[in-house]
Amino acid sequence: MATIARRAPVGNDVLERLKSVVGPAGTIDDPSDIAPYCRAWRGIWAGDAPLVLRPANAEEVAALVRICAETGTAIVPQGGITGLTGASQPHEDRSEVIISTQRMKRIRGIDIANDTMTVDAGVILREIQQAASDANRLFPLSLGAEGSCQIGGNISTNAGGNQVLRYGNTRSLVLGLEVVLANGEIWNGLRGLRKDNTGYDMKQLFIGAEGTLGIITGATLRLFPKPSDTVSAYIGIESPTAAVELLSLLRSKLGESISAFELMRRAIIDLLLTGVPGHSDPMPSVHPWYVLMEVAGQGEPGTLNAPLADALGAAMEAGLVRDAMITTSGEQARKLWKMREDLAEAQKSAGGSIAHDISVPLSRIPEFIEKADAAVAKAYPGVRHCCFGHVGDGNLHYNPIRPVDWTYERFHAEYPNMNKIVHDLVVSLGGSISAEHGIGRLRLEENYRYKSPVEIGMMAAVKKALDPKNIMNPGKVLRD
User: Can you tell me the distance from the alpha carbon of 120 to that of 104, in angstroms, rounded to the nearest whole number?
Assistant: First the structure.
């Protein structure tokens, strides 16, 4: 990646002032130790920073930000470094310092009667899930990186995951925030309220803002009753059209008990079985597409099996299902969901893909897949189609894999053109070019291409109002 001169490197006097706030325990200044904080976990993005600061609490974050605001020093807020769009990596000119929430790991409290949990921004998602479970509650946000991602980053990117269909994305799971603003003030909005009609809902500005408006230091999260019965089903179907119609039929019979509904193309299943050890074909019959779904609810274990079987029977009679299996144990269900989780590894084993994280209205999913397949195949004969995703909320990962006789480098050079083919179609169908991964640096210029000048102007006005010196994660989401 070429070096782009944006700002002057941070001066040593500023670095020393920042170090004094957090002390040795909160300072990383050795280049070899800094390097992992500057690289994305997929290796696409890598920058350089002179200092990583790891404050222990919101007050230390605020003290650091005040120094940065005074000196015009840019900040890269950082959580678990699991993002995919370059939002949490610094640029290459050493003009930014990284403020990591890594040491901010307190679960501040659980209010069982109010079904809320208040946490520091640096708490690992899986730890939140476990703390909720220990209290006989559910925190439903679930994604592949949950063992290392931090809740502050999840909120900053408005993370999605497998259960958005029932519970909504992160935006729906946050009741209150604590945020350090760009001038170093602390806004305490940690209210566990479901109704608060007193003006602008300020927390929503910071959810999905990717650290460009402030640094989230704490959150009050919604909890839900812990399901006492959960069952999954693996379903062979003919087409995406069948998947959309199947979801509609099942929702009419099972209602809100459907917590996840994933669509997978047979081609990606084949790549998984041949390229990722530890998996076997769950079903003896082969089908063009599959749905992996989950239903969950209250009641005695096993009570959901009969309603699910009846609903699938009705779907089979309607010609929407070719074959289906319902899990009979938690271990069997875990194996199925591990297949879904490992689809990224399957693409890697096949030589790499060009990934798209898109959403379209549910009714347009079949049209999108048909037209995208045709357009991509016409532009790149021999391309291997790869499509899977959270069809229940319209979010697809449409990731064409390189032709077998192409090198990865040759295929990856087509990234801009491939994106244009796919994203032009997405927008024409009323969709979004980023459903859950965010904009960061990866989609920055595309955001300007597809959003109207009015919408970009509104976003820029908010940025200017809350971060007039442009020190909060500059060059991400909006142009520097």
Answer: 6
Q: Residue 224 burial (CB < 10 Å; 0-12/13-18/19+)?
A: middle
Tell me the angle at which helices 240-254 and 365-379 cross, rounded to the nearest 10 degrees. 160
pTM, 2 dp? 0.94
Strand partners, 178: 188, 218
Burial of 365 (0-12, 13-18, 19+ CB in 10 A): buried
Calpha distance 79→161 (Å, rounded): 18
Q: How many residues does the chain have?
A: 480
Does residue 41 sit in helix, strand or coil?
coil
Count the neighbouring beta carbons within 10 Å of the beta carbon of residue 415. Answer: 12
pLDDT tens for residues 181-223?
999 999 999 999 999 999 999 999 999 999 999 999 999 999 9
Enter the tokens of residue 158: 């408005």
Burial class (CB in 10 A: 0-12, 13-18, 19+), 129: middle
Beta bridge partners of 294: 232, 260
Q: Could you tell me the two tokens for 257? A: 């008990």
Cβ atoms within 10 A of the Cβ of 404, count?
10
Judge whether 109 and 128 are in contact, CB under 8 Å. Answer: no
**Residue 103 · residue 82 · CB < 8 Å:** no
For residue 351, what are the contacts with CB-CB under 8 A and spacing of at least 6? Answer: 401, 402, 404, 408, 411
Write the pLDDT tens digit of every residue in 146-194: 999 999 999 999 999 889 999 999 999 999 999 999 999 999 999 999 9
Element (H, E) at 230: strand 229-237
Contact 153, 145 (CB under 8 A): no
Task: Kindly report the number of other CB atoms within 10 A of residue 8's CB atom.
Answer: 10
Tokens of 164: 């958005």
Whether 46 and 39 have beta carbons less than 8 Å apart is answered as: yes
d(CA 279, CA 272): 7
Residue by residue, DSSP assigns 8-20 as: PPPPHHHHHHHHH
Joined tokens for residue 156: 């900053």
Phi (first) and psi of residue 38, to 5 degrees: -100, -5
Q: Rounded to the nearest 5°, which phi and psi values hold at 2?
A: -70, 145
Residue written as tokens 């009419």?
A: 252
Domains of the chain plus CATH, in order, are: 12-102 (3.30.43.10), 107-225 (3.30.465.10), 229-337 (3.30.70.2190), 351-437 (3.30.70.2740)
* Longest alpha-carbon distance in the chain: 74
The DSSP bridge partners found for residue 235 are: 291, 324
